[in-house]
Structure formats: structure tokens, C-alpha cells
Design brief:
By secondary structure, this protein is of the alpha/beta class. The chain has 13 helices and 10 strands. The structure holds D-glutamic acid (DGL).
Length: about 280
């Protein structure tokens, strides 16, 4: 029998936990190793080179743990590092391993979310500047008009546990109002940052009811399950004992609080060093 290893899930910080949560709901049988680079988050404002360097270090760390399949559960890393890792780094490291991102699953299904073909993307500065969403959506759905809005303050608000606080309303409302003033025909807003589902109550509060608000977690989980159906050779390299391992590059009380907020299982968190 072939040796099998956990699925690696990487994010710059807490955000990828929202994706992991959906993976655990849909595909609970697999083992998962989560890695959050909290010591160096946020990645949003960083350059392509730095995001690539940090993400590659994280991927190599997960590969060292045995992972055959790694998910970049971070839009910024998916936008700024994934292509280089897939095309340049992976063939040199181990062409049999896979690194998958979170942008493709959303863009290839984008047509489902909008009736009137006007879509809004809410993301970090890095994701918005990369143009990955409009470029990818255009390939699949040339008729969809995409408007983007960078919300640079939202990730620090979540990382600082201010996602439920009153002051956060101001910053959420400001960006929702702005994107809807740029394109009032938008009928679906995509949360193109894994931290944003933690702001969902406030985002819904300031979004008119006829507009759908789409989180990525479920879409990514569905896409992984489809991927495994298409690639049984990769699926059988993923171990299935229902184990979860949580790692961060900066173990603070807030990482612990965030994991407890999202998961109702006992959680042991390890601090690790990527350098
Ligand atoms: N989790 C990242 C994303 O989905 C955002 C956090 C960051 O800027 O590091 O884009």
C-alpha cells in the first residue's frame, strides 16, 4: 500500500481557517496540517517577490511534513505566488506533488453567482492589484463585468479580533458603499479574502438584500472533492484518519482564540519556524 500524508493548508494568518472549516465539513475523513504565517501577516500589501518567497518557504515546510497536496488558502498567495510555484518551483522540488489555490475554483464557477452579469470582488490590495480575478473570470465568462474593491483595513481588523466591534462597521460600510457606487448593478459580491467570512455579519448588514455575498470555503471544498475524483492517484496519497494539526509561526493568545472560535474540537497548536 502506498504511504499517505495529510493535506497541507496554508494561509498568511488566521484566514485560511475559514477554508479549513469548510474542508472539515465536506471532507472530514482526511488528515490536515494547517500552517498560518502569523509572524509575517498580512501578506496583502507585500510585493510579488516577498509573497512568493514566504509562500514557497511555507510550501516547503508542508512538503517536509510529507504533504503531497497543499492548498494555498490565501488569495494573496494564490494571486502572487501560485503560478511561479506551479510552473517554476514544483518541477524542481517534486513534480508529483500538487499546490492548489483558491482563486481558480471561484472564477471558474463565477457565472453561477450573478444573474445580471455584474460581479463585485472584495479583496486585499495585493489580490486586487494582481488583477487575477478579472483576468481569470474573463477567460471563463467574457460577458461578466467585474468591479474590484481593495479593503486594506479589513484583515488587520480581523487579525486584531475587532471583527465584532462597533468601530468595524464604519470600515465595512465604507467599502461596500464604494463598490456599489462604482457599479450599482452588482448582484453578487465575492469575498476574495479568506479573512472576510469572519466579517460576514457586518458585510451582510450593509449589503442590500438582493445582492448575494459569496464566501470561498464551500467552493474550495467542492473543488477539492472534484479534483480528487479526477485525480485518484493524488487522492490516495492523502491519509484518512480524521487528524488535524495546527501550526503557526507566531503562537499568540489570538491564534488560540481564533481556532477556538471556529472549531469545537480540542486544539493543540505548535509554533514553528519556516527559516
Ligand atoms: N488571507 C489573505 C487572503 O486571503 C489575506 C491576509 C493577508 O493579507 O495576509 O488574501
Amino acid at each position: 500500500m502506498k504511504q499517505a500524508f495529510p493535506i497541507g493548508v496554508f494561509d498568511s494568518g488566521f484566514g485560511g481557517l475559514t477554508v479549513l472549516k469548510e474542508l472539515l465539513k465536506s471532507l472530514p475523513q482526511y488528515d490536515y496540517i494547517y500552517l498560518g504565517d502569523n509572524a509575517r501577516a498580512p501578506y496583502g500589501p507585500r510585493s510579488f517577490d516577498v509573497v512568493h518567497k514566504y509562500t514557497l518557504q511555507a510550501v516547503n515546510w508542508l512538503f517536509d511534513k510529507g504533504c503531497r497536496v497543499v492548498i494555498l488558502a490565501c488569495n494573496t498567495a494564490s494571486a502572487k505566488a501560485l503560478r511561479t510555484i506551479q510552473q517554476r518551483d514544483l518541477p524542481l522540488i517534486d513534480p508529483t506533488r500538487r499546490v492548489l489555490g483558491v482563486i481558480r475554483p471561484v472564477t471558474e464557477s463565477a457565472g453561477v453567482y450573478t444573474k445580471n452579469r455584474h460581479l463585485g470582488i472584495l479583496g486585499t490590495e495585493g489580490t486586487v492589484q494582481s488583477g487575477s480575478y478579472p483576468i481569470e473570470i474573463k477567460k471563463f465568462f467574457p460577458d461578466i463585468i467585474v468591479t474590484q474593491e481593495a479593503c486594506p483595513i479589513w484583515v488587520p481588523l480581523v487579525e486584531n479580533h475587532e471583527h465584532e466591534s462597533e468601530g468595524t462597521d464604519f470600515f465595512v460600510k465604507r467599502h461596500i458603499d464604494h463598490i456599489l457606487s462604482v457599479d450599482p448593478s452588482i448582484d453578487a459580491l465575492i469575498l476574495a479574502c479568506t479573512h472576510y467570512p469572519l466579517l460576514i455579519n457586518k458585510i451582510r448588514k450593509y449589503t442590500p438584500q438582493h445582492i448575494s455575498v459569496i464566501s470561498q470555503g464551500e467552493i474550495v471544498a467542492k473543488s477539492l472533492s472534484d479534483y480528487f475524483l479526477r485525480h485518484p492517484d493524488k487522492e490516495e496519497m492523502c491519509s484518512q484518519n480524521g487528524k488535524r494539526y495546527f501550526n503557526t509561526t507566531d503562537l499568540t493568545a489570538s491564534f488560540d482564540r481564533m481556532t477556538r472560535l471556529l472549531f469545537d474540537i480540542p486544539i493543540q497548536i505548535e509554533q514553528v519556524n519556516l527559516l
